[in-house]
Amino acid sequence: MVKTLLFAAALLLSGAFAGNEVARFAAARHQPARAVMLLAKFHLDRLSAAVKSGQCGTVPQERERLLGIYKEIPAAFPMTYAQDARFRSRADDLRNAVHAELQMSGDCSSAGVKDIDDACEACHRDYR
Prior knowledge:
The protein is mainly alpha-helical.
């Protein structure tokens, strides 16, 4: 009886370790996509804060950073970008919104930030 209980405990423990490794492997596949989205959110928030607080000197840098991050979307989501025309369209809309924001080099208004945020939300509505 004791041997059976020890054997069952050993099986449960080895199953827990194996399950942890499988979960870690599955999560590792999505790390580049999560990293791109987290960085995009961070820099969009910084751009929005700079616009709201009137720190127009940092706005062009944040716009450039956002464009660089959004250029990483095809690399972060290679299969989806290659196979899903709607996803490509959403990614292109996002890059176009950032390009339009970059054209507003002397402007420190929040209109472009809202367009970028709307493009992000449109994609997230479709792909949550």
